[in-house]
From TrEMBL:
Keywords, ordered alphabetically: Cell cycle, Cell division, Cell membrane, Membrane, Transmembrane, Transmembrane helix
Name of the protein this chain belongs to: Cell division septal protein
Domain POTRA: 29-97
Keyword Membrane applies: yes
Assigned GO CC terms: plasma membrane
Species of the source: Finegoldia magna (strain ATCC 29328 / DSM 20472 / WAL 2508) (Peptostreptococcus magnus)
Amino acid sequence: MKKLRTVIIVAISLLIALIVYLCATIDYFSIKTIKVKNNKIVKLSEIKNYANYSLGENIFRFNKNKLQTKISKDIYIRSANIKKIYPNTIEVTVEETKDICYFEIGKDKFFVDSDFNVVKNKDRIDYSKIVKIVGANENLSKINNLESDEKFYEFLKNLFSHKVLNQLTEINVYNASDITLLTKNEISVFFGDLNDSEKKSNNISKILNEISTKSINTKIVDTKDPKKPFLIKENAEQSE
C-alpha cells in the first residue's frame, strides 16, 4: 500500500511537471495579440511598439513589470495596467496624463499635469484649451515637479482642488504680490499674494458659483483679503 502511494505521488508529480513544461514551451501559449484600451493622445502603434518585444514570448514567462517600466517613460502616459488574457493575449489599459496649465519661458512651453509634473514642449497638447500662466518665474522651468516650489505648488493645487482652475483661461503672476486670474466669462479675480491660497481658492469657488447660479452681472472679484472677499456688480454696487 505504501509502495502504491509512492508510485501515485511520483506519477502525479511527473504529470504536473509535464503540464508545466508544455505550458512553458508550446506555441499555443505564445503571445500573439496586444490589445490597447483608453488611449486618446498616444497612438496605438506607439504603445504596441513598447510591447512588440513580447510577441512570441510565452505568456507564463511574460514580465508585466518590464513593460510597465517601458510605458511609464512616455510623457503622455500617467500609468498603465497590464493584464494577461490566456492563452495568448496581452491587454494594456493606459491612463494618460491630464495637463492643467502651461507657461512659457522664451520659445519653450512647459506643461503642468494633474500630478504637478513639469514637462517641456508637449507637441500633442492643445494648449489653447488649458490655463496659461503669464509671467512665470524661470526657476519653474528647472524643476520636474512643482512640489519643489512649495508656495506656488500650494497655490495651483488649491485652485485645482476647489475646481477653480478649470474655469480660468489665464493666471497672471508677473507681480507675485498682486496675482490676477481671468475666467472664461472674462471676470478678473484679484488674488493678491500666494498667502492663504486655500481660503482664497475656496472663496473664489463659492463666489463664481454664486455668480453663475444667480446670474450676477460682474467683471471683478476681489479675494485679496480672505476674510472679506467681495465682487463688484456692473452697476457699481458692492456685495460681500
